[in-house]
Amino acid sequence: MPEVKLIPLQHFQRYSEAQMLERARTFFEEIRGRRTVRDFSNEPVPEQVIRDCLAAAASAPSGANMQPWHFVLVRDPAVKRRIREAAEQEEQEFYTHRASPEWLEALRPLGTDANKAFLERAPILIAIFSQKYGLLPDGRKVKHYYPAESVGLATGFLLAALHHAGLASLTHTPSPMGFLNEILERPRNERPFLLLVVGYPDQGARVPDIQRKELDEVLSVFG
Ligand code: IYR
After folding, report:
1. How far apart are CA 147 and CA 132, in angstroms?
2. Which of 92, 95, 112 to mutate to test the pocket of ligand 1 (most atoms within 8 A of CB)?
3. What pLDDT score does 82 carry?
4. What is the mean pLDDT of residues 55-83?
5. Fewest C-beta in 10 Å: which of 102, 137, 175, 177?
């Protein structure tokens, strides 16, 4: 083992097998109920809840512990409007020119189109940026490792935390998303990873009638 300072493991909780079964099942039942929502209420959400969910996201593991992420919390209606306008412009191109017929066919069950009213109506947008490299105060670059995987992990933590706290979310990926750097004043080493829309579902919110694959379809076991 290389010389490195190690400290005792903290916070790991060992449970009885019965407790583990109960906890695993309870978590599954809760997380399986998460659905991507597109009909948002404009009701505000408690800021501290969002902050705690973001802190949970930022606790995710990452390549060489570089934590190659940055989150921008947007509540300002004027900024939300600019984001909506820019996103709708890209989406218009996507739905009329850029997307292949095969892609549009795959999206059909979701019923999505270029209208992104939720970007203004939902109380919160969270733009998630991935950093290819970090920047030290003196301007030197620090290489990051596995940024896409790392930011994906943090985003998964965030989606689970928001759902657990009682908030709905939508993982939105206008493409290309470069306009987010400009509007949100993020530096060149950061690439937009995902635009998360967060709030309460609108009254009577509806979602596409789609199913997840059964576990047996996505799992194979050796031994
Ligand atoms: N970005 C577009 C299209 C879109 C693409 C995928 I892949 C989706 O899972 C959903 C939508 C949009 O947001 O409408």
Report:
1. 6
2. 112
3. 98
4. 98
5. 137
Helix 147-165 to helix 17-31 angle, to the nearest 10 degrees?
A: 90
CB of 92 within 6 A of ligand 1: the answer is no
Ligand 1, atom 1: closest residue by C-alpha: 174
- The separation between CA 221 and the C-alpha centre of its own chain, rounded to angstroms, equals 29
User: Please, which residues bridge with residue 70 across strands?
Assistant: 129
Q: Is the CB of 173 under 6 A from ligand 1?
A: yes
Which structure tokens are listed for 73? 């919390």
Q: How far apart are CA 147 and CA 189, in angstroms?
A: 12
217 within domain boundaries: no
Identify whether 184 is part of a domain. Answer: yes
- Whether ligand 1 lies within 6 angstroms of the CB of 91 is answered as yes
CATH code of the domain covering residue 61: 3.40.109.10
Q: What is the pLDDT of residue 72?
A: 98
SS3 191: strand
Q: What is the Å distance from ligand 1's center to 46 Cα? A: 28
- pLDDT for residue 37 is more than 90: yes
- If phi > 0 it is left, if psi is from -120 to 50 it is alpha, else beta; for residue 76 that is beta
Q: What is the DSSP letter of 108?
A: G
In a domain, 157, yes or no: yes
From the CB of 174, is ligand 1 less than 6 Å away? Answer: yes
Residue 9 lies in a domain: no
> pLDDT grade, residue 1 (50/70/90)?
low
